[in-house]
Design goal:
mainly alpha; Arc Repressor Mutant, subunit A; 2 domains; 8 helices; about 75% helix; disordered N terminus
Length: about 200
Amino acid sequence: MPRDSDIPPESFDEILAWFSPDREVAWAVFVDLRRSLIKIFGWNHCVDPEGMADETFDRVARQVHRLRSTFEGDPKLFFYGVARNLIKEYHKKVKSFVAIEGVDLPANQTDEEEEESASLRAECLEACLQELSGEKRDLILAYYAKEKQAKIAHRLEMARQRGVSMETLRVRAYRIRATLEKCIERCLEAAGGKQ
């Protein structure tokens, strides 16, 4: 799902306030809801359940100010409705993909070639990380430091420490990652020309 950066940082705080006036209760609802959404997207065979859960929150964040005064009932139900629409969009897109059966694929790399390729990518990543400012390097390394449930709590803590919303943190990490990917591509192309 595409990521947008036009979401106001205060939207996440407004979502939490919509869940509960008690900040701790709101965080618990957020974590539980996000976990539920990830499971729902997984059960519906979506390739990126976490990304789609984030997209659900992003879509609600864009209209949370209006929703708080107009939506009646449990806010989680609105999130589930948005998730249902995302699943429909996802399956519609999946149907439009062309199957690769019958397409000639390049020959598989040998183990040695794969190791060499992975080693070159690692060298390029390390070089590109060194080109980042210390602050950006620390942020991106911390952002991808944990896995599974620990990752969610870690990123929430990172956002809290920086005094920004999850959306803002996610956008910052996305921009740094995009910069790294371009740098790595240039590095790999330059290395390919030397061989």
